[in-house]
Each structure stands twice: as structure tokens, then as C-alpha cells.
Amino acid sequence: MKKNLIFIFLILLSITVFSQENDSDIRDYRRSQMKMMSKDIAYHEYLTIFCGDLGFNASHQSLIGYLDEYMGMTEKTQDYDNDHIISIVSEKVSKGKPLQLKLDYSVSDPADDSGEFIINKVKITGSFDAVLKLFISYWGTRLQTKDLKPNEWVYNYQAPDRIGLFIVSKNNAYIEITHM
User: Fold this and answer.
1) Is residue 120 exposed (0-12), middle (13-18) or buried (19+ Cβ within 10 Å)?
2) Is the pTM of this model over 0.85?
3) How far apart are CA 25 and CA 180, in angstroms?
4) How far is it between the farthest Cα atoms of the chain?
5) Is 102 helix (H, G, I), strand (E, B) or coil?
6) Among candidates 81, 84, 74, which has minimal Cα distance to 119?
């Protein structure tokens, strides 16, 4: 009987000690699991959808946060013209001419009382290297630059968005995000 009680006590003790891992250990474990998964899918805290029900402010701020933290770019200007919101982002620090991106959001008025514009389409143009880096890193593609050919589309899908990279020429490309 004593052996059974000692055995049960040891089991309960091990469960108690194991379950008292602190939150940072659990977070670290989850991050490591997500990093392993990110080899196949994009995962970062800024990943968002663009076309659909999520409003402009949430989508745009997520992308700007990513550009700031991962690509060293900051928003320089933002203008609203008719049914387009245009934002220019540029490298914070660079040698020579900084890489730039132009984010052109085609928007419509909100369907509800939220006051947020709804994104219909996004076109991202700018420095070839910046456009390519954004497409590959933000949406986690395994695209190889040697596979790129002029006048060809490369697609990535993240429901409900269809993200297309169009190679215009050897040094000119743009991204277009539309609803699937």
C-alpha cells in the first residue's frame, strides 16, 4: 500500500512540476515551432489580409510595421485621391539612392458605420529589389530569382487574397493584390 501511495505521489509531483513551466518557456517553444513551420508558410506578427472585410487601417498598418521592422523602410507620405490611397515608403538609411515602394490602394467607401475604407486592390511598385524582397519575404515564398522571366506572373495565395508578382523586365516588377 505504501508503495502505491509513493508511486501516486511521485506521479502527482512530476505532473505539478512539469505543469509549472513559465510562460516564456512556452512562448519560446511556440516560436521555435512557428519558425519550423515558416519554412513552408509565411508567419510573422504583421501578416494580414488586404482585400475583403478587413479595413484599410488594419491592413496598411500591418504592412507598414513589417516594412519598418524587417526591411528598414518607413512611410514618407500618404495621400488620398478620389478612390485611391497612395503611400510612399523608403529605406531609413542607405548608401546612395534609397530603395522605395509605392503602395497604391484602390478603396471603396465603408459598407457600415465603421468609417474604414475597404480595399479592393493593391498595386505595389518601386525599386525592383524592394518589390522582389517584399514578395518573397512577406508572403513566405520559395521563389528563386533565376526562375523569373519577363512578362510572366508568379502567384501566391493567402485567402481571400491573390498576390501576383509581375516581371515587366529584368529590372522592373510590381505586386498586385486582388480578391480571389
Assistant:
1) middle
2) no
3) 39
4) 82
5) strand
6) 84
CA atoms within 13 A on the CB side of 153: 9
Helix (H, G, I), strand (E, B) or coil at 32: helix
Please work out, in degrees rounded to the nearest 5, the angle formed at the alpha carbon of residue 47 by the alpha carbons of 44 and 50: 175
The H-assigned helical ranges of 20-159 are 23-37, 56-71, 128-138
Q: In what order do the strands lie in the sheet with 152-158?
A: 73-81, 84-91, 100-108, 118-126, 172-179, 161-169, 152-158
Would you give per-residue pLDDT tens digits along the chain (180 residues)?
656 556 565 565 555 444 444 545 554 554 454 444 444 455 678 888 888 777 898 899 999 999 999 999 999 999 998 899 999 999 988 788 888 999 999 998 876 777 788 999 999 999 899 999 999 999 988 888 787 888 999 999 988 899 999 999 878 999 999 998
Look up residue 137 and give its three cell numbers. Answer: 519575404
Contact 139, 158 (CB under 8 A): yes
How do the domains of the chain map onto residue ranges?
2-37, 56-179
